[in-house]
Amino acid sequence: xxxxxxxxxxxxxxxxxxxxxxxxxxxxxxxxxxxxxxxxxxxxxxxxxxxxxxxxxxxxxxxxxxxxxxxxxxxxxxxxxxxxxxxxxxxxxxxxxxxxxxxxxxxxxxxxxxxxxxxxxxxxxxxxxxxxxxxxxxxxxxxxxxxxxxxxxxxxxxxxxxxxxxxxxxxxxxxxxxxxxxxxxxxxxxxxxxxxxxxxxxxxxxxxxxxxxxxxxxxxxxxxxxxxxxxxxxxxxxxxxxxxxxxxxxxxxxxxxxxxxxxxxxxxxxxxxxxxxxxxxxxxxxxxxxxxxxxxxxxxxxxxxxxxxxxxxxxxxxxxxxxxxxxxxxxxxxxxxxxxxxxxxxxxxxxxxxxxxxxxxxxxxxxxxxxxxxxxxxxxxxxxxxxxxxxxxxxxxxxxxxxxxxxxxxxxxxxxxxxxxxxxxxxxxxxxxxxxxxxxxxxxx
Length: 445
Prior knowledge:
The chain is mainly α. Helix content is 66%, strand content 0%. The protein is built from 16 helices and no strands. Residues 21-418 form the Ammonium transporter AmtB-like domain.
């Protein structure tokens, strides 16, 4: 068959609609990092709140600069199956304002900034596993090194046209492998190196502000529509709309499934369970939502909700201190969402690939998903553990035991999240005013 000849009239043209849509999606994904900060910040004890917020916010600064300097070039430049490179993209030095991204109808700059927000969020996800005990300076350096040595290569493998996982046919719509398995495996690798918090399995370590957790979870759900639907880079064929719908459906199913598991297992439906369940659903549908039907999304969400709820308890059984359940939610949810593509892919969404329950009922897509999942898991786990080990032996990763017990906020940031000491303000002031009012009424009586 003779190759088709593309006429000038057929070449992609800049679409104002798709460009505007992608800029909005980029802003939504950016919002997810502060949302994550609130989500994690409410889950820790009061003495660690600011440190938890800062561990997410610092990623906004560090990764943005690195992405401009070399990150985008190495992740998405034309290179080989393992890493990319484009000299014109170093420092974003030679990109035309209306230069289109790789056959799409959006500018390169728009694609660059959209992917930047993914690169920012991913290391921030790791921070939840390390709550209460990591030096802020060591964490900042870890973010820079991990983004360079782990995130950027994995993003190239999964999403670049010449990446080995992309060429193999691994389906990862918006980051089941590159974001969630990558971050979850990294979290496991680091906590195995740095050890447990003081008092782990002995002292109560309950969330200090469940309203803050719910606020963060709600904002994550909102921002995730940009994260997922935007990953199709437009919606000219309806796939982005399918992903939008499946994001809502799977998240709802996962929240209900987690709460059902809690009710049966522990006798109560908790606020923290609702927040964790919806995040588990968001994680699981991220790789699969463009390939499954809405009914498939319900199945993906429900399976993830139950499995992740069960998985968070493994840290007590196996003795690793995953402070805020990054391993149980993001690693397990990412693995499930990625592998379930091999069962529920209909062949009517982002690709014609079908899962075990559709088409010819073959296992071809499932084994491809397995290859992507376990390659990313192994690389991120080992590389992250090595990075943490080297930093621990040089700078030292952990704060002192005294600083951890007294509060990492004061030790690392010279601040506290809540000021209860001011006369006439805060809890102390309110209590004093109430006591004075009672005493006044007694005198008057």
